[in-house]
Amino acid sequence: MISLDLKNIYPFIEDKEFDAFLSRAGESLKLLHSGAGKGNDYLGWLNLPEETDKKLLGAINELAKEFRNETELLVVIGIGGSYLGTRAVGDALNHSFSHLLPDSKPQLIFAGQNLSQDYLYELVEVLENKTYGIIVISKSGTTTEPALAFRILKQHLERKIGKAASRKKILAITDSSKGALRKMADEENYRSFIIPDDVGGRFSVLSPVGLVPLGLSGVDIHELMRGAAEMAEKSGPSIQIKENLPALYAAARNALYNKGKLIELLVNYEPGLHYFSEWWKQLFGESEGKENKGIFPASVDFTTDLHSMGQYLQEGKRVLFETVISVRENKHSLLVPEDDNDLDGLNYISSKPVSEVNKMAELGTLLAHLDGGVPNIRLFVNKLDAFHLGQMIYFFEKACAISGYILGVNPFDQPGVEAYKRNMFALLGKPGYEKESEKIKKHIRN
Ligand code: PA5
């Protein structure tokens, strides 16, 4: 099991303050499981680990065999919740240089997560000389970024291998009945998977949204779900609140927020976790940032960012706290070699594992930041494998829901993300946006 260490919040809050938030976390946990809280139409993610049909996992494994032999690249098209979870797990589990290893296929590459002309052009250039398939993911089936990327790549694939063959290389993951992607999948006869109605985008990585691309790229999705199921079991409403990890984390971060710590930095010391932090930022940012409330979720990759953000973190505005993901075991072993001349002066650490140097950097930084007025929460993970990633995903999802309820917001909606879309559609002349268009014209004239 992953574990938590909260002792470094106590210089900043009193025991009784934490206990008050823990009791609110307990109430929020009960509310969540009762299904009577805000956004209760979107609680399907709670039961995904337990309810996901083994047949679905088997079908994904069968597809993986088919794609493995014939496909060098899998282009995963999606944005936000239809992108970040897959990228997070894939990057954490795969070889850091898998794109340079000839035998690891199919490789996941991503599109539809931006509107960059150069990105799409260069992607098409690369795909020209590769065998590839497309997994297009969109719950609404109407999001501009993935729709545009899919239009371009679908036409490219059809030109390259023909319409009939490309049908076998395209998988669609979308709603069971609504949206343009569902219509297209049905009309074009693409194989498709359904995103359950009651699972929102940023809570969907353990649904076909994440399981299909991850399974096809060789991730052990059974282990991923087993880890998540274990965390689900250990964080149910009958588990003692002081033993309930998501509730403890939710209480700690809200207690710190209440003390003016408005920004939470998710810290990692493993580059493979960079996208895990991106996934986490979306999860908490979209779930909590509303009604003029919410902890601002940010992230840093250490030790890299100690050489860019370290100064601010140590001595800048004291509104920060850190949640540090501490990985206990590395996948590989590597010792610092002895050097006869020692010109670089590193013999004092020779024969030590590189991981020990990294660990000492972690401890040294924690202490320095604590002295500098930055409290921290530590999350210990034994190793970065599918099982522990499953635990971490479910842990953060549940903590996020509990935390949103403590704040008093609906953690499952995102009304604010529509504002830019309305302006963009009006500026592009999309039918139905004439009123916004007038407003924008007036704004530009002024
Ligand atoms: O969390 C969310 O709901 C969003 O981030 C969506 O996942 C994102 O906007 C993509 O939406 P869709 O899957 O409908 O294309």
What does this protein structure show overall?
This protein has 446 residues and is of the alpha/beta class. Helices cover 49% and strands 13% of the residues. It is built from 17 helices and 10 strands. The chain has helices at 15-34, 48-51, 54-70, 84-93, 117-127, 144-161, 163-169, 180-188, 208-216, 221-234, 245-258, 274-288, 310-315, 354-371, 386-407, 418-428, 434-445, and strands spanning 3-5, 73-77, 107-111, 132-138, 170-174, 191-194, 263-268, 296-301, 320-329, 376-383. α8 (180-188) links the parallel β5 (170-174) and β6. α1 (15-34) packs across α15. The longest helix is centred in the last third of the chain and has 22 residues, at 386-407. It is globular. The N and C termini lie far apart (58 Å). The model has no long low-confidence stretch (mean pLDDT 96). Residues 79-82, 138-140, 143, 146, 200-202, 286, 414 line the site of 5-phosphoarabinonic acid.
List keywords for this structure.
single chain; 446 residues; alpha/beta; Rossmann fold; 2 domains; five-stranded parallel sheet; 17 helices
* Structural class assignment: alpha/beta
Q: Alpha-carbon distance between the termini?
A: 58 Å
CATH topology name of the largest domain: Rossmann fold
Tell me the β content.
5-15%
Give the H and E element order. EHHHEHEHEHHEHEHHHEHEHEHEHHH
Average pLDDT across residues? 96
* Oligomer status: single chain
Number of domains: 2
Q: Helix content range of the residues, please?
A: 40-55%
Shape type: globular
Task: Please write the CATH class name of the largest domain.
Answer: Alpha Beta
Give the uncertain stretches in residue-range form: none
Rg estimate, integer Å: 23 Å
Largest β-sheet summary: 5 strands, mixed
DSSP strand count? 10
What would CATH call the homologous superfamily of the largest domain? Glucose-6-phosphate isomerase like protein, domain 1
